[in-house]
């Protein structure tokens, strides 16, 4: 999973005993050589699924990390693609890796996703693999902030894999990881919030509706279907209404 150019076991241990922000500052130079980076397969599938919903003028990548999602926005947006993250280290790597060419302007903002420093400035907000850093009780505020930075009719989109069944070793791997993180956070400060099994479709759908979105689910066919026929990966597309309800 980790190549010779990736972080060492010691580096990962130091990161895990840091705060989320400082941990990612430490990991940033080698982040793209870890399995934590969203795969190109997922990025490409999301880009293909979103393209027919455009055109988009301005896009925001929420918790952009080293900028892989901003590259997706650069192919979908005509005017600007902006990445926001609270890790200065991750943003520094992103600035060096993703540069404006003939496409939209590229921008980087250091900020907390729970307190986005924007008004209604975007037509599209995306996020890839970041939601494990938010506790379930934080979702209402997070989704409300995303709603506030979208223009009427704007979209909030993110891929959401189906949970692994109990017969899959991945189920027990993720369960074990979450258990270890809970013990770590109970015994060590500052906390490192990263849980894989807290971002569930039912809760997400309810909180998106509560924030004022209308939501549709689109299967990403590149990832196939499970034995019960359900998609292995869905794209959640939440839309901010063009008019206020009741008007």
Quickly give the structural class.
Answer: alpha/beta
- Fraction in beta strands: 15-25%
Topology as H/E string? Answer: HHHEHEHEEHEHHEE
Spans of 5+ residues with little confidence (pLDDT < 50)?
none
* Chain-averaged pLDDT: 89
Give the overall form. globular
**Number of helical runs?**
8
Compute the separation of the termini in Å.
53 Å
Q: Biggest β-sheet: count, sense, barrel?
A: 7 strands, mixed
Taking all Cα atoms into account, the compactness measure Rg is 18 Å
Helix content: 25-40%
Strand order of the largest sheet: 3-2-1-4-5-7-6
**Extended strand count:** 7
Notes on the structure:
This protein is of the alpha/beta class and 247 residues long. The protein has a domain at 1-36. The protein has 8 helices and 7 strands. It has helices at residues 9-16, 20-27, 40-50, 68-76, 88-97, 139-149, 169-187, 201-210; strands at residues 56-62, 77-85, 105-110, 122-126, 150-161, 214-219, 233-239. Strands 3-2-1-4-5-7-6 form a 7-stranded mixed sheet, with helices on both faces. The chain is globular. The mean pLDDT is 89. It holds the Pfam family Methyltransf_25. Keywords: Methyltransferase, Transferase.
